Amino acid sequence: MTFFLYSLSIFLVSGLLALISKRSAFxxxxxxxxxxxxxxxxxxxxxxxxxxxxxxxxFSFPWAMPLGAFVLNIDFLSAFFLVPxxxxxxxxxxxxxxxxxxxxxxxxxxxxxxxxxxxxGSMALVIVAANALLFLLAWELMALASFxxxxxxxxxxxxxxxxxxxxxxxHIGTAFLLAMFLLMAQSAKSMNFMDWDKLEYLPSLARGIFxxxxxxxxxxxxxxxxxxxxLPEAHPAAPSHVSSVMSGVMIKTGIYGLIRILSFLGFPSxxxxxxxxxIGIISGVLGILFAxxxxxxxxxxxxxxxxxxxxxxxxxxxxxxxxxxxIPVLTVIGFVGSLFHVLNHALYKGLLFLCAGAVLHxxxxxxxxxxxxxxxxxxxxxxxxxxxxxAICGLPPLNGFGSEFLIYFACFxxxxxxxxxxxxxxxxxxxxxxxxxxxSIACFSKAFGIAFSGEPxxxxxxxxxxxxxxxxxxxGILALSCILVGFLxxxxxxxxxxxxxxxxxxxxLEKATFSLSQITIASIVFLFLLGILALxxxxxxxxRKVETTVTWxxxxxxxxxxxxxxxxxxxxILVEFYNFFLRVKxxxxxxxxxxxxxxxxxxxxxxxxQEKVFSPLFVRTGNVLCIxxxxxxxxxxxxxxxxxxMLIVLLLWKL
Amino acid sequence: MEQLINMLMVVILxxxxxxxxxxxxxxxxxxxxxxxxxxxxxxxxxxxxPQGITTHILVLVLITIPLxxxxxxxxxxxxxxxxxIQREIxxxxxYPVSIFLGILALxxxxxxxxxLTGMSVPSLHPxxxxxxxxxxxxxxILIVSRKLAINQVLGYIVMExxxxxxxxxxxxxxxxxxxxxxxxxxFVAVFVMSIAIYRISREFDHIDxxxxxxxxx
Amino acid sequence: MNxxxxxxxxxxxxxxxxxxxxxxxxKAFFGGxxxxxxxxxxxxxxxxxxxxxxxxxxTTYIFRLGPMVGLVCVLLATTxxxxxxxxxFLCFPGDILLFAYILGLMRFFTVLAALDTxxxxxxxxxxxxxxFSALAEVAFFLGLIVLxxxxxxxxxxxxxxxxxxxxxxxxxxxxxxVGVAFFLVLLTENARIPVDDPNTHxxxxxxxxxxxxxxxxxxxxFILYGSALKLWVLGxxxxxxxxxxxxxxxxxxxLFSFLAMIVLGVIVGIVESTMARxxxxxxxxxxxxxxxxxTVALVLSMR
Amino acid sequence: xEDGLILWALLVIPFLGGFCCILSSKGFTIRWIxxxxxxxxxxxxxxxxWIVSIEGAIQAAHGWLFLxxxxxxxxxxxxxxxxxxxxxxxxxxxxxxxxxxFNSALLPRYGMxxxxxxxxxNLVFVSNNIxxxxxxxxxxxxxxxxxxxxxxxxxxxxxxxKYLIMCSVGVALAFIGTMLVGAAGGNLKGxxxxxxxxxxLYENAGSLNPFFMKMAFLFLVVGYGTKAGFAPMHSWxxxxxxxxxxxxxALFSGFLLSTAFYCIMRYLxxxxxxxxxxxxxxxxxxxxxLFSIIIAAAFMxxxxxxxxxxxxxxxxxxxxxxxxxxxxxxxxxxxxxxxxxxxxxxxLCFFSAGKLVQIYGTNSIYRIKNALKITPVWATGFFxxxxxxxxxxxxxxxxxxxxxxxxxxxxxxxxxxxxFLFGCxxxxxxxxxxxxxxxxxxxxxxxxxxxxxxxxxxxVAFPMLVLLILxxxxxxxLQNILQKAANIIQGY
Lengths: 655, 217, 303, 492
Fold this sequence. Notes:
heterotetramer, D: two-stranded antiparallel sheet, 19 helices, globular
């Protein structure tokens, strides 16, 4: 635990040092990065220790704050969430050093590093806090720090809008959390989490209310549809290492919070599971559909985050259903699957955002439609992006498959053979997860294929360059860990969960890990066959003539790069098919007449919920409240009359 | 003696009605002064006649009458001269209606009094409390219904007169220091308000408060 | 390790190109022609393997990797599906998922390789491919759920085990419906009429063929062989769902399964001869219909 | 006797200082007199707090002057706000004079009014006689009225007139309430001169006439509530705040409202104890609090005047305090804590807004842009203090709001909870709407970047640091002070 406290204080001190030395970009970057990496490494020690030993650590310290207590507790769940936080933050910090350095002449790096380290520290604190007030304080600190990081380039209007939306969404979420925590504390007569296990004896109505508040409050952070609206704004706006951290681990604190609260609430009602499952399905399917329709690389990744959160939530949903209907297979494997997906998503989404950042860094562009041919110019970034894309599509042999497999597996072995109560949700999950799988292949083949392959569609691609080593190494480590985790999951999972699950449950997990081990064998066979085939091919080709020429152009004499399929055209057929959900806005001015003016076509996919739900809701509420503005009309006579009327009303009412 | 006091009270009531019903400043301000003198004379007498004249009463009378009866009307007249206002422009509520309102207010005042009797009010005279309430209400009506700033000041003074009565009705003999503090406050208030009216008339060329509507949402 | 385990893979590797020969002969028969030899694809493959290759300047290693990954994926898929009552090389609960996703990996790389050329024709094909196969995957999974529900297992080898005929008889309606759904998926995944026309040469209308326009030499051989294998594995799933025959003797079962595959070839050939290609926009409807059939089957079995 | 001296000092020194101001004519001298007075007062206030915390309540002038923990806490806060505002005024007015918005000949008068206002407010806090307390409140109205229209414009005159009339009428109603309280204690044994002493009433609160006390409280809450800015009697507030010079607005918002609110605090235990602790009076406060929060929130939506925005935010905060006070328990403690936080945050916010208005020459939010480039210190101060005011952690207002929410939930009052959270959310959204634009927006106007002075940095840093530190931990002595003050309100 001491290590953990050291780590927290390192974050704070290094952040302050970076802030103080803000005049020197180098010094502040140095302090920021060094503190971030050192803190993360120190923090990893207790986390891994807890994960491997199964012995929780706790710490308490008198905190002079009414209602508050500085109680920290690292148990299995905390440790499991801490690991990706520290790993990704350390790598993103390293990456950010070089990434941000190019902004040194126009922006204050010291402040950005200060916020970054505070963000990392507060995330860690959120995960280990065992007191409601401490949790909320860390939660708000995290929101504030990430807000400042998002508005790093606040000169841009889109960035300001993103920051605004982010802060509002997260604050409204916090309002729900405030209500929830206080109500729970009231019921448990304590603000400390350790006293909250008695909440499970509450009537189910009360627990249901807590559950709903938690889903809304934490869902706003985690990006549950329709509360996700800030993600597609904030992630593109933030510097890439920040988006990577936010998307990879910060939104997971929402998932963590939800699981933590569920752990207090005891035996779940069946509708909890249904709710989470429905949210998961909506977030997953709509998330990936919206991702597909985007042409901004980081926006696409942001929507894909919504999708992945959806998958995690689906897993949690069937976990709850498993508990409610007492099907241990669903419970155990569903839970392990969603936790594993949390870890995996942190790795590959972190990686993908870093790659997107590298592309942005190298070309200054985020629009996929203008990219092309980057694989030749940014070899490493392209390779890493490919790894990330395979992983995020859930394709074997990388890690994404493992967690999706577990969730499927739970449904196939636990849900489908069971009664209708569990078979129907399992069925729904399988169907939608398979749809998500198919669509994410479409989405990421577009992202990779259009951006990295083909010919450049814009001249700024021609002088694109690969990033420096400081940025490559973190990406490389993440890509490598995606592969390694994919291969090693059958060994890793039982080792991690052995101290957490009961023997009976471990037995169930054992079955799933057996399948995983077979998959690893298949993956090894795959690599082996691939090697042989490559050998055969090179043997065959080495004695034959190998020519290079232009791409087959159907005989058309003057093909240009502009004639290539773009991202938008690639997704058009899909977008049209799912237009019911997407409500794409198309603008077509077709050429007319004999000597037509230049025609144009444009297509954009604004967020459905933002356009159709939240904006109208907010504007309506605003307008309704504006009606009250007529009360302040400037006539003093009536003002005095207000006083008198108020007095008379009170006299009549209260006396 | 009892009859005399009753009559005084009724006269105070009537002055209020007169204030409500008249449009000319030349009538209102002397009426206000008259009301002030009546208060200054009647109340201490009413209160302390049984005990005989004390220094307290003497001081009170000596301050109240010059202040309420002479100084306030004087200040108001000065304001009128400076701002060149003769009569109230048409108020929100026409004069007959405001007299009618005044009668309603009278009913309200007696009703409030009836609510309070039996609650062991140390009231010295049955009419004291209704008169107090009534005067306050009339002041409020004046403030709310008249358009000129000067009339609002007038209303404020009327209201203060009512409160003076009320203070005596409720608290009986209040400490002199407190009385003086209150009187000073009222005096300063009237003073400050009249300066404010000067400034307004200088800036706007009118003192129609209803036209001061620039600050709004 | 039991040597038998390799039999399904062996059959696939050896006989897969034959099925295409059968399809072509059937079509020729219906067209009143003599048609190609049954072993035409074998000849083509050998010819291609002996050829050099031509690459576009635009392409990168992705383009070269695509055919290889595709072939390896489908080879791996053959090790997951039992044949003729013989369990597959890899069988474990959940191998159906690996099967589906390994085909997904194949698709992913084929699409990337297509996009790597920078040709808009190949982009078109790729877009259609990912669109249709996303729907096909749903239909396929629905079918798998029916099978899993009926057999209470999540592995092909356990599904098509020796007790499968009894289960089949008890649930024959569902199985037939699922079989039809699988057949539609098979047509889509293998780019057959009515979804796609493997013989057309109009780039604008093609799906699968257009994606491999730029491949040549051994790469193209890998692709052709890979598609033949894919047809084979999906075909085995279809035939085993429709014709659940078990005699108790391995050899008889194998023979029967092989015959079933030939029948499949004939059926595909008949379908191709009698139907026209659908408009591209109609294809999703076909797949939704397949999904609907599976759903009906599901409702029946969940009853 | 020595203890009594400090009470007299609190009362007399400001008026003395004011008197000195009017005698001198040089701007320099006046500035020094004002500073010296204010700093002396600050020291005196701290000494008084120290004495009170050691010896308990102190009295002077036969019990007419009185200082317990509640009033002492207020006195200290008042002096701090005053000191900060004076410091700010020192840098604000020279710039105003440079802009020809302020005539330096008015400086003596301004200094006199400024210091007398301090004296009048101190009078409210140290007087034990509720009548004198009323006198003090009325005096603050009259003294500060001219402070609003130091810079004579039609609008500022209008604001001043509205302030004057509304507050006078309101406070007059409070006088009726005061008299009713006196009447309620009419049957008590004790000398006549004691019947209006708060300590006397407090000791005998149980035997006050409940009906009279109820009626009195209604008058008091409407009357003082007008001055404190409770909706719907708040109408004067945005006008006055938006027209007054920034130091004055800061003072208004930072402490003038709280002064009237303090009076309500004083009466609350009396009424509650007289009516048998049924929570009758507290419900009224909760009602006013929630109503104020909602109204303020509604007016902050689409608000375009930067100072009006802040004014409505003050109404919201007074509402929050009223809710806390009305809930009792943790709520009382939290309301007092919130008072401290608000008195730190709001003046800073007004200082910064005033500076921005001064630099850009407009109150319109749309035209104040790119402030971070032009005046980094004040823009930062504005942004941070606003974030603090809308309740972002780690600033202390988050903590006090949290405690108030806790109090609401302890009462199981879920409708209030929903309204409270709704109001705060609306305020949050509408307040934040323009903030980013103000800081970073592209400015069309050609305004030169301003130099940052050390003093400005101190003015920004000091309140923010206080808010930050209190948001992270709360020293033992502060907890004790607040607890003691809260106990007085709760009648222990």
